[in-house]
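As the work plan foresaw, the team has encoded backbone shapes as discrete tokens. One protein thus recorded appears below exactly as we store it.

:::
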Amino acid sequence: MTTPIHVLPPEVADAIAAGEVIERPASVVKELVENAIDAEARRISIDVRGAGRTSIRVSDDGDGVPADELPLAFVRHATSKVTALADLDAITSLGFRGEALASIAAVAEVECTSAGARIHIRAGEVIEHGAGPLLTGLTVEVRDLFANVPARLKFLKSDATEVAAIKDVVIAFALLHPHVRFQLTIDGRAAVGSTGDGDRHRAFASIHGAAVAEEMVEIVGMPLVTGMVSEPRLSRGSRDGIVLAVNGRPISSRPLAYALEDCYQGRLERGRHPVAAIDIGIDPSLVDV
């Protein structure tokens, strides 16, 4: 006997939808960092405990969320970045769908403070909402990720793998946005830190060390392309050192990576790859995000 068609309860629908946005702890970090950059933050601190399963805390000094709008920020498809259908052809922000905070709150316990207000949400339900510390920017703490979706927990990798994915996210943003100071701590230990002074060489030195930074060359003469690439004498055995982006948004693109490597033809040994951080500026109407 077939089960009648029915509308899913909100908490079930939200948990399913959240799985499309939040796949692992690194997804949480990515979404919260994008929100901070969109809010014009110049300092972003990320503290991770238990490979992100236990807690992820992201604080920034950006515009924050007005106290009276804080509950609305956790409603699915509520956003300040899109108001009309035509806006989708001119997306200049990193986030815009209004799904990130709602998706995170659907699969974890979340505490958020901004503009003197505080909200506490567990599995999509508001537990507490009231006054909070009057601090600059926004602070979001995510605890017990996927506690209410145990099947999702089973698909997470080892702690080392999840931590590496988190570091990759922060490193990519730190190299692409050198004007923002990033600080990532893992279980109380500094893992990634950048100066945030806008100097790309210093950003690379903070992430990869001074020796690597000395071999990096800034891209010039290409108005729509910014970033740095390594001298041929600096290479790696994998493509892990290549960071690519479109309009400041990190992407994964084999064709672009291959195009970059073609520029080094005859200058790199077989199986060696350059180090780079490249951001390609494209008319937003031509990009499907």
The two ends are 42 Å apart (CA to CA). DSSP finds eight helices and 13 strands in the chain. The chain has a mean pLDDT of 91. The chain has two domains: 10-193, 215-286.
